[in-house]
Amino acid sequence: MQTVGLLVVSGDRGLCGGYNANVIRRAESRVRELQAEGIDYKMVIVGRKAAQYFQRREHPITETFAGLEQIPTAPEASKIADELLSLF
């Protein structure tokens, strides 16, 4: 069976206006599309808002990255990239 990796990037705080809500809404929409096609998915989440939302709903989350600086450092970005590549 095919598995798709979803990278969800939200903010750590709610100061982004509708950004976090739109990111979460779009991720949920994509999950429903994948489920309708019978495709499994795994999530890699960057940002506290999306992490809180999806952890409460028991989605298959492989890794969560929260509390990063506004511009991630090279080691932080490398950890995210390594996690995504491990799913390939």
Describe the secondary-structure layout:
Layout: E1 3-9, H1 19-36, E2 40-46, H2 48-56, E3 61-65, H3 74-86
Parallel strand pairs: 1-2, 2-3
The overall pLDDT, averaged over residues, is 88
Side-by-side strand order of the widest sheet: 1-2-3
Instruction: Describe the main β-sheet briefly.
Output: 3 strands, parallel
Order of helices and strands: EHEHEH
Distance between the termini: 14 Å
- The shape, in one word, is globular
- In percent terms, what proportion of residues is strand? 15-25%
Class by SSE composition: alpha/beta
- Proportion of helical residues: 40-55%
Entry summary:
This protein is of the alpha/beta class and 88 residues long. The chain has 3 helices and 3 strands, in the order βαβαβα.
What does this structure look like?
With 88 residues, the protein is α/β, with parallel strands linked by helices. Helix content is 45%, strand content 22%. It has helices at residues 19-36, 48-56, 74-86; strands spanning 3-9, 40-46, 61-65. It has a three-stranded parallel β-sheet, sandwiched between helices. The protein is globular, with a radius of gyration of 13 Å. The mean pLDDT is 88.
List keywords for this structure.
alpha/beta; 88 residues; 3-stranded parallel beta sheet; globular; 22% strand
